[in-house]
Write a structure and sequence with these properties.
Elements (H helix, E strand, L loop, with lengths): L1 H15 L4 E11 L8 E5 L4 E3 L7 H11 L5 E6 L17 E10 L5 H12 L3 E4 L4 E5 L4 E5 L5 H10 L3 E6 L15 E4 L11 E5 L4 H11 L7 E3 L3 H11 L3 H4 L3 E2 L11 H16 L24 E4 L1
Parallel strand pairs: 8-9, 8-11, 9-10, 11-12, 12-13
Antiparallel strand pairs: 1-2, 1-5, 2-3, 4-5, 6-7, 7-14
Helix pairs in contact: 1-3, 4-8, 5-6
Length: about 325
């Protein structure tokens, strides 16, 4: 999601300078690939770029050829990254042992409908469909929204890491000396209140971490009925069991979304490492994964498309 923000920022700068650009979009993959369908790369006339469509083996090629390839309109290019293909060790890089189909489109200032649609999806938090000139259809989803209920010092790296990934982040805490804007300058919102400070939609996750039992109890009661994809509670499982009992909640009804103790088992110690473990677990949950080691996974590392990944199918 951060990649989309960088692409939009570069496009805004290019338009301001009166520059055109080429937008490259992965529309289909066969075999192994570094990026999934929906990955984008924006190339401007002045040579700047944002985003990526490979591990580096295609970007340099497109920087040289994208402009003349799109002289006559949008075009789909097929790149073979298998050992026998044109993008092998003797070509642009080692490759990913797969085949990548890339849509190239020329953009002019004031005329970039796909990028403006992405901007609208982010701002309005509504999914949208794209039908590309080649007939490929794509579904765009808003970025995850993270509600951090608790504004202690350990919430700072969690908010920073989530923003680094391009997520929306909202902080809330009933204690004014904790919930301060200067403490969370990157957050989308900081509120002095007990409970979430932003609306819950289908792309929202939440964590409860105020270190105040009474405040966590009130927040849990409020969030328990919300359609969250992930609800994490900081602290030992024994504490969460007591919170659930005192809140009069049935754990079986929350089991699918409830994570306590929250975070993957990384041996984390300290706020920064705990933040990494929590963000990693949320990412896994959003993609329907368990968060295990890839070397122990059977089949493709991408496996299946999740609702959180842009999906592109042939029309």
């Amino acid at each position: 999601m951060k990649e989309r923000e960088r692409i939009l920022e570069l496009w805004d700068a290019a338009q301001h300078a009166g520059e055109s650009a080429v937008l490259a979009t992965v529309v289909k993959t066969q075999g192994s690939s570094y990026r999934l369908p929906g990955a984008r790369l924006l190339l401007t006339q002045s040579g700047q770029h944002a985003g990526s469509i490979s591990g580096g083996c295609l970007e340099a090629e497109l920087l040289k050829k994208a402009w003349w390839l799109t002289e006559n309109g949008p075009v789909v290019r097929r790149y073979d990254t298998t050992p026998e293909g044109e993008i092998s060790e003797g070509g642009f890089g080692l490759g990913c042992n797969g085949i990548i189909h890339v849509l190239l489109e020329r953009l002019a200032p004031g005329n970039a409908p796909v990028l403006e649609l992405i901007r609208g999806v982010h701002q309005q938090r509504r999914p949208a469909g794209v039908t590309h000139p080649t007939g490929w259809e794509e579904t765009l989803n808003p970025p995850p929204r993270l509600l951090i209920c608790g504004a202690g010092d350990d919430a700072v790296p969690l908010a920073e890491l989530a923003k680094y990934l391009g997520w929306q982040v909202f902080i809330s805490d009933g204690r004014a000396h904790y919930a301060r804007r200067d403490k969370f300058p990157q957050a989308d919102g900081v509120s002095v209140r007990v409970g979430p400070s932003a609306a819950v939609d289908p792309w929202t996750v939440a964590v409860i971490m105020s270190h105040s039992y009474s405040q966590d109890l009130d927040v849990l009661r409020e969030l328990a009925s919300q359609p969250l994809r992930y609800l994490g509670i900081l602290g030992p499982h024994k504490r969460t069991v007591q919170l659930l009992a005192d809140a009069g909640l049935d754990v079986t009804r929350l089991e699918a979304k409830l994570h306590s103790p929250m975070g993957l088992d990384l041996g984390a110690d300290g706020p920064e490492q705990v933040a990494l473990a929590v963000i990693a677990e949320i990412q896994a949950a959003l993609n329907g994964r368990e968060g295990g080691a890839l070397r122990e996974r059977d089949g493709s590392i991408h496996g299946h498309e999740s609702p959180w990944v842009q999906s592109i199918v042939c029309a």
